[in-house]
Amino acid sequence: MKREHEEEEEVDAANKAPRTEADATTEDQAQAADQAQVAAAVKPKKAPKQRMAILFGYCGTGYKGSQLNPGQPTIERDLMDAFAKSGAITEENNDPKKVGLNRCARTDKGVHAAGNVVSLKLFALENLVEKVNACLPPQIRIYDAFQVNSSFNAKNHCGGRQYEYSLPTYMLRPAPHQLYPHSALSDLVHPELDREEESAVGEPWTVIDSYEDVCKYRLDPDSLAHLRACLKEYEGTHNFHNFTVGVRFNEKNAGRYMKSFIACDPYVRADGVEWISLRVNGQSFMLHQIRKMVGLVVMMVRTKTPATLVAKAYKEDRINIPKAPALGLLLRKPTFDSFNKQIKNQHEDSRKLIEFDNYADLVNPFVEEWVNKDMYKEESEKHVYMNWLLHVDERSLNFSWWLTKEGTIQLSLKPTDEALLKEEDDVGGGGDRHREED
């Protein structure tokens, strides 16, 4: 009995012995493992990550362009931040490389887009569009977001871009004939007419009128026909080395294909100013190309220069074409005809097409509210286009030698380099430069 009692005391003593550090570590590890198991069981599963096409539009006012640029406010920066805030990507993946971001077109400072497309990997959240839009400023709107193949690339699958350039028609009224002595303007001036009579028949005068008087101008049928004939000369494949910077005549990159370039019918706004929209559909564009294409035809219509000059601009002779203001330029939409055709041929009815016409009920109100209203307001307050006219006419020596009544470039008329005035980088609002390059 005594022995049994001693054994019981030994067991009790062992049970009451202080716990060692090793024992504590083992127990803590076991407890942590149990907690991890419980957490894993109750932790919500992440939504699957998919490559998605994002169809969106934006007003570029206040932004330094659309493409991500460290330290600068850009459209894509706000997009990425909105994806992170909405939970479509994690904060640690708020990086274009980590999510495989690509884009079909880039616009620069102050330029707008009715439609653009980016592609990246996102979590397939319910109501993704609504959640991301709630995290975006109202001047950026996502129209749709849907899954595409993992190999989809917004730039490579894009077959073309459609741009629109809007301008008040007073940009096209006859220029002061004294400033363009080689043009056909001198043949149209009637010395016996006083200034008021000249205005009535659309004749040029020397000093530009007040803004209010300028805005009364209406484009006549002959000038509209001339404008359309000039734009027609852009269609097809041509060498556009004169319509960009840093590209030589013999470089392969200078060749570009324009499917169409048209002028819509003029329209008069409630404030009494007449406007016109020019629409170009091309495969791709170089830096400044569209603004220089518009700048050339504006100068040609103003000086009654024959449409044949456009073809001469494709030749090797270098001419300095002024850039039209960036304010009027809008990326209307990218086109994905081949991509959409492939989907249709595969009879994949469940997959969406990238076709902005299907979103007209979203796009049109957004453009009117955030793009057109902004453009008209800036023109009304700052007289952007009128200032551009004053600027180019002050430097008419730079352009008058190739604006001839024959529609030819005559190098014998070119002033010396010392006589030419240095061009400012940009005039008339819209930013320091604009990228149409895609």
Automatic annotation (TrEMBL):
Q: Name one GO molecular function term.
A: pseudouridine synthase activity
Q: Where is the composition biased (Low complexity)?
A: 27-42
Name the active site residues. D108 (nucleophile)
InterPro entries the record matches: PsdUridine_synth_cat_dom_sf, PsdUridine_synth_TruA, PsdUridine_synth_TruA_a/b_dom, PsdUridine_synth_TruA_C, PUS1/PUS2-like, TruA/RsuA/RluB/E/F_N
- Write out the catalysed reaction: a uridine in tRNA = a pseudouridine in tRNA
The record's family statement is: Belongs to the tRNA pseudouridine synthase TruA family.
This protein is called: Pseudouridine synthase
**Which species is this UniProt entry from?**
Rhizoclosmatium globosum
Q: What is the lineage of its organism?
A: Eukaryota, Fungi, Fungi incertae sedis, Chytridiomycota, Chytridiomycota incertae sedis
